[in-house]
Amino acid sequence: MNVKNFIKENNLEHVFSKGSFGIEKEGLRTKLDGKLALTKHPKTVGSRQHHPYIQTDFSESQLELVTPPTLSLKEQHRWLVALHDVAHRNLLEDEFIWPFSMPNILPDEDTIPIIDVEDKKEIHYREKLAEKYGKRKQMISGIHFNFSFAPDFTEKLSQLNIDHREKLDFLFLKLSRNFIRYQWLITYLYGASPVCHPSFDNGESQGVYTRSIRNSPIGYHNTFSDRVSYASVQSYVEDIESFVKEGQLIEEREYYGSARLRGKGKAARGLLNEGVKYVEFRSFDNNPFDSLGFTIEQSQFVHLFLLTMLWIEQNSTDDEMDLGMKKNELTAGENPFEPSQFKEEGLLLLNEMIETAKELGLDSSYIRSVEEAIAAFEEPERTLAAQVVKAVEKEGSYMALGSKLGQAYKQESYEKPFLLRGFEQMEMSTQLLLFDALQLGIEVDVLDEQDQFLKLTHDKQVEYVKNGNMTSKDTYISHWIMANKTVTKKILADEGYTIPGGEEFVSIENALDHYPLIKDKAIVVKPKSTNYGIGISIFKNPPKEEGYREALEIAFKEDSEVLVEEFIEGTEYRFFVVNGRTEAVLLREPANVVGDGERTVAELIKAKNTHPYRGEKHRAPLEKIQMGQIESLMLKEQNRTFESVLEKGEKVFLRENSNISTGGDSVDVTDSMHESYKRIAEEMAEVLGVNVTGIDLIVPDMTKESTPTEPGYTVIEANFNPAMHMHAYVHKGKGRRLTRKVLDMLYPTIQLS
Amino acid sequence: MNVKNFIKENNLEHVFSKGSFGIEKEGLRTKLDGKLALTKHPKTVGSRQHHPYIQTDFSESQLELVTPPTLSLKEQHRWLVALHDVAHRNLLEDEFIWPFSMPNILPDEDTIPIIDVEDKKEIHYREKLAEKYGKRKQMISGIHFNFSFAPDFTEKLSQLNIDHREKLDFLFLKLSRNFIRYQWLITYLYGASPVCHPSFDNGESQGVYTRSIRNSPIGYHNTFSDRVSYASVQSYVEDIESFVKEGQLIEEREYYGSARLRGKGKAARGLLNEGVKYVEFRSFDNNPFDSLGFTIEQSQFVHLFLLTMLWIEQNSTDDEMDLGMKKNELTAGENPFEPSQFKEEGLLLLNEMIETAKELGLDSSYIRSVEEAIAAFEEPERTLAAQVVKAVEKEGSYMALGSKLGQAYKQESYEKPFLLRGFEQMEMSTQLLLFDALQLGIEVDVLDEQDQFLKLTHDKQVEYVKNGNMTSKDTYISHWIMANKTVTKKILADEGYTIPGGEEFVSIENALDHYPLIKDKAIVVKPKSTNYGIGISIFKNPPKEEGYREALEIAFKEDSEVLVEEFIEGTEYRFFVVNGRTEAVLLREPANVVGDGERTVAELIKAKNTHPYRGEKHRAPLEKIQMGQIESLMLKEQNRTFESVLEKGEKVFLRENSNISTGGDSVDVTDSMHESYKRIAEEMAEVLGVNVTGIDLIVPDMTKESTPTEPGYTVIEANFNPAMHMHAYVHKGKGRRLTRKVLDMLYPTIQLS
């Protein structure tokens, strides 16, 4: 079959060039002095028994990050970014991830720790490997690139009048064969293990640079000399099975071919029943210059390379594959600053790649990545291996460079601990929840990014989560109860809770008629059915009729019904109740600065705004204090300007309202709030039949116990989908990880190992 | 204490004049020939063991409708209207409710059926009553008017520095004492039992008209001559208890005083512990001219009368109460056309009432009701009793009048069977659900009428329902899954269900770039997150770019994300799944008429629109077909006008879209749809984790079984809060009572007796 013609004849170019991708990235945990970390795999990243994303390979210290299959390289990339954030933030303070494929400073062979897991069979397999290859070799890390066709493509195939499974097997085989034939090109360009630490090879390779020690004969290969045939799936499976039978392989998974056919399950035989599902390409070195070990540009180049392996007419024979393996070994051993001995073949192939990209209509970034490669053929110092050598020499040593880079990558993950990189466009609460889910090893599928819609799976239990805490654990009606403030109040009042008095209006005229009854009272005007505090006006002093009318106009913009409630004196606290417990109590203070006897208000604001928790437009847990008209007016009322110097300890407010979104401070008071109020919030949640809610109580004295005769609180409202990020990173007090509590509610049985 | 001064000094006028109200109304079930119905209480109105609203009193045939306590007379009135609708629509075809207090044609004393309930004690009590009074007297029916103060009033009292329970007891006692003293005024005005059928008294009273047989000595009174003292709650309780002890009362409830003090429980002694909660006023005759037996104007007059009983200085002594009872008896015995012998006292009282209304700032309708009463004192023929006599004479007989009125009232309840009168402003589905709940004897509290928010209670189980089927049985997240069409499709596709192909766009430009890929296809353009079919455009033929752009503009008005899906050929059906079962399948046909060879399109439309199910603006299960521009254009495309005469059997469509709201027909196909599709809809509901949903499937051939290889359907969407009324009253086929299925889901244990 001619693939190119087949694709073109059936107009499959678009779906053919999509693809499904995954990356597995290994890296050694390393101490600050560059030595292999001999500590245990962090407990906080969940149990390796089920963790889909964060695993260990041969050694307890060999972290392995595994992205889920994704439908674009961008997706693949962001998953890898996110997993690095999770991994980095769960490392011990004095550990980091080694950025090279070749190991850090290894201890005595005996001291190198094999994985410490419950499954004895897993340990046994590693012990056998250690025996066979030596532990050192097993410590070499790398990148595996998994590729399959997009579901759209297989669906289209299935609609054609052909045996589509056979067709897919054919494509996967051709892909693997040609990849093995031409993989040397990748090693030329992206080989990145030109040096290693003497502890790896007793210093044997010192002073001699090659493109890839890992792809060289002393690298990571099977010990047997026979080849696995890729002539058919049948021959592939039978060869592997017979190697195991004959004892050349301990288990099937020991087969280290640089293109492994993968099915649904782990056993090779499954390929015969269900067909090939994807191919695992294993020859890639970690790129030390990228915090992820592999750039998105590299992925893109590899993708096009794979498409080209299908697009060209050649379908390599087993002998041609042998040649390819040989060329790869030779390339790996070349001096990084010398031209490729296969330059001609390389340039031909690169031109084929450009041709393929054009015929498939791929975007220009693909072609740019090939142009880069062409340049690297002309100037070998542009190859990754050459650059690594230069950087090692510049930094003084392999260890110095690796330590510097690895620690810097870890530091990047700490810069904005409230964000999960890769998913920064999602709401902060969702990012925190995602982080926690990845940490616990819950499978995550972003069903709709804009809509903050996640699918979580663990041990076959599927849970959908929207906006961080809208789940199956709450009922449909509980949402609507909270959305309707009148209904909430009725239900709570019926159960004897203290609510503010008030009336409900359907028109401004209606509400204005009511003015005589409220004209001497402090009141709050608010839309009946909004959340998030929108459209609310507070009159701590009785309103003039004009002000009352304005407040009504604002509220009626949000809703067709408006409540006019009595204003209750006291401080408002947000009680966050999840799964029956008040897990956090927060006080929100209006934007303010405290003087030091020296600086002006403007300077104090500037200084306060430098805090890493303060950002703009909900991209940080706190907002920067503005210096606008409202703040200026507020200062004027206090006979101040932005230029006033405040006395030491003097606190000046810049806003009336306590919203975090206008620069307010979040103060966690969970531990100082009298327990009785927490119980009341929990009871209210129960009465409302809700598992996640933010209950706003006004409590004049939080240290005084609430009693039936002196309740000491008034309930203002119960909020659905209450914000969680503002509790996690607070201006003052202890941060509360409510996203984790939500996950505990959904998956009460998940245990950290 | 001077009540008037107390109220005024504490500014309580507003809350004092509010009140809490209830009505109990008895009426005999009657056969078309006017004879007492000897059939059983209808099973379809729930079990009398728990029914809060529809009961029987002494006799199996004596229906008793009981409104819940309401905070306004309007509320009270609408509940009574609704309960009448429920009662009427559950009667046998040849039965109706007798509109008079005095009975219909009674059979032999022995044949009159005592209630037939499970509780033997209840039956035993009635047997004792029958023994003591004779069954005939027990068949007299009447109105009980329950009054209490508004919760606002009692709350304000509790905030004053007084013993508020004592104060309330004082008020209730004063109210009762003065009511008994002056009740004759009510009997004068509203006495409405001037005649009775000879079967009641062997014809003894024939030819002699009085104001109220029921209030006369041969009416409904206790047999003992001693009085119950209202000097204090203590004396009231002790007197009743001693009458029971001495055997003058069978049980406490036999006390028939026209003002009975009521506490929380049934035992009089409870009054001492918890105080008086309300007073039950019992001297009112059924008003045969009102379908409810009591007009809202009467209620208003009584309310003001009660307020006046509190407002006046007098606090009647037991002797004065005796005088009042005497006067009531004398008034009851007066000739309806003669002036009252207590006219002077009456007019004084009525003027006090006007004074009271003014001082309390009641609205003018209260004063008008008093002016009516003044007129009735001047012209006795304006009294209810006199009007009844005149109507009886005009109609020929008491029986003729009673039959005519009773049957007409029943008929009114059948005119719009899809509405529940009293609640017509609510959504139709909510009205149907309310009807079913009242029928089953589920307690209903309308928490928010505009928001369609109900609280249901049965046997301590509280359920909140919004919009007829948003309940606690569905999860918060299931709503959002259905609200997001992309997410719905992903989840269903993951489970292998057939969905239309499609793409999602975030901008018009984005979607226009996609035009080349769809330009040869039939497509549907729709907003991602709307329900109820809003903003959708269908192109059964490939769209021109301009039309595509317009459709995008329409869809983007509704949502920031828009789906462009392939259009699937076939007929769309709505599968209504509730609680795991497909309970209804509906086909919606665009507005159409079928010719008869004689009439024009316009005439056919007019005729079709006369069907009682067709109305306007969602106030009926089907909408009237419009004769607007769209219909005119649609006819033009078919070379027709409104004036075209259609051939016999010729069907002409007046709309493209099949919405019921634009005059479409609803056709129930539940029984003809192949079971396999119903199972698929049920499975989809399960996959989406939802208990109530309307799943739209396109099925080209509904008689052909769906199989894994030939599914025979495509799922278009799953709707949250699917309409229920359109299934209940259909253009063709069998109506499906889905509201009842929702209640069965919420309360699976409710058994009809």
TrEMBL record, chains A, B:
Catalytic activity of the protein: gamma-L-glutamyl-L-cysteine + glycine + ATP = glutathione + ADP + phosphate + H(+); L-cysteine + L-glutamate + ATP = gamma-L-glutamyl-L-cysteine + ADP + phosphate + H(+)
ATP-grasp domain mapped to chain residues: 489-747
Name of one Pfam family that matches: ATP-grasp_3
Enzyme class: ligase
Cofactor: Mn(2+); Mg(2+)
GO MF: ligase activity
Keywords per UniProt: ATP-binding, Glutathione biosynthesis, Ligase, Magnesium, Manganese, Metal-binding, Multifunctional enzyme, Nucleotide-binding
Ranges where the record places region Glutamate--cysteine ligase: 1-332
EC number: 6.3.2.2, 6.3.2.3
Recorded metabolic or biological pathway in which this protein acts: Sulfur metabolism; glutathione biosynthesis; glutathione from L-cysteine and L-glutamate: step 2/2; Sulfur metabolism; glutathione biosynthesis; glutathione from L-cysteine and L-glutamate: step 1/2
SUBUNIT field: Monomer.
PANTHER family tied to this protein: GLUTAMATE--CYSTEINE LIGASE (PTHR38761:SF1)
Family of this protein: In the N-terminal section; belongs to the glutamate--cysteine ligase type 1 family. Type 2 subfamily.
Function: Synthesizes glutathione from L-glutamate and L-cysteine via gamma-L-glutamyl-L-cysteine.
Annotated protein name in UniProt: Glutathione biosynthesis bifunctional protein GshAB
